Amino acid sequence: MKKITIGEAARRSGVKVPTVRYYESIGLLPAPSRSEGNQRAFEPADISRLAFIRHARELGFEIEAIRTLLTLQDDPHQPCASADAIAKARLVEVEQRIRSLMALKAELETMVEGCGHGRVGQCRVIEVLADHGQCTHSHH
């Protein structure tokens, strides 16, 4: 089977070359074999692992959660309670972030609605940004 260069591994997995090296350095990706010229030589399984890591990062999972998920993936016969717990914790974080963003959205809408399109001296946007106490929502 033909080995895959780091550039090709990056292209196939959607992960940038420096990130591939980083994941290797922190142990998320096992050190690949090396060619006679000491270049990394990746296997198809490495590409799949990189794609898994990229997707998990896109979903906002932290490195340690991904490390745990990879360990679980490496032993597919174990119960999935740990994976479920990690996903549930991430869901709670996302829900908190959504609440915060909704409060931010409401605050921005209030600021924009309160703007009289007059002069900056009477601009609600400037007033609220200058004095957080004027915000209608404290969770943003």
TrEMBL record:
CDD domains noted in UniProt: HTH_CadR-PbrR-like
UniProt xrefs under Pfam families: MerR (PF00376), MerR-DNA-bind (PF09278)
SMART domains, alphabetized: HTH_MERR
Keyword Transcription regulation: yes
Keywords of the record: DNA-binding, Transcription, Transcription regulation
Molecular function terms, GO-annotated: DNA binding; DNA-binding transcription factor activity
Residues in HTH merR-type domain copies: 3-72
PROSITE patterns: HTH_MERR_1, HTH_MERR_2
PANTHER family: HEAVY METAL-DEPENDENT TRANSCRIPTIONAL REGULATOR HI_0293-RELATED (PTHR30204:SF94), REDOX-CYCLING DRUG-SENSING TRANSCRIPTIONAL ACTIVATOR SOXR (PTHR30204)
This protein's name: DNA-binding transcriptional regulator, MerR family
Provenance organism: Rhizobium aethiopicum
